[in-house]
Design a protein that fits this description.
By secondary structure, this protein is mainly α. It has one domain. The protein contains three helices and two strands, in the order E-E-H-H-H. A two-stranded antiparallel ribbon has the order 1-2. A hairpin with a 6-residue loop joins strand 1 and strand 2. The radius of gyration is 11 Å and the shape is globular. Bound molecules: zinc ion. The site of zinc ion has 8 residues, from helix 1.
């Protein structure tokens, strides 16, 4: 089954849950920067999966 992920439209990071993506977007919009506490949960930062866009 394909793994779904959710993008923060503000910073472009991807998350495994919509909740985290929403949380990140809310923070990014309000603070104009990212919160490490949130971005560390992103797919990019967790480093266990390549960005979906480059997977053939
Ligand atoms: Zn963000």
């Amino acid at each position: 089954m394909p793994e779904e992920n959710y993008e923060c439209k503000a910073c472009g990071l991807h998350y495994n849950t919509k909740e985290l993506a929403d949380k990140c977007y809310a923070w990014c919009s309000a603070h104009k920067s990212c919160s490490m506490e949130i971005t560390k949960h992103s797919i990019e930062m967790s480093g266990k999966s390549a960005p979906s866009s480059v997977v053939p």
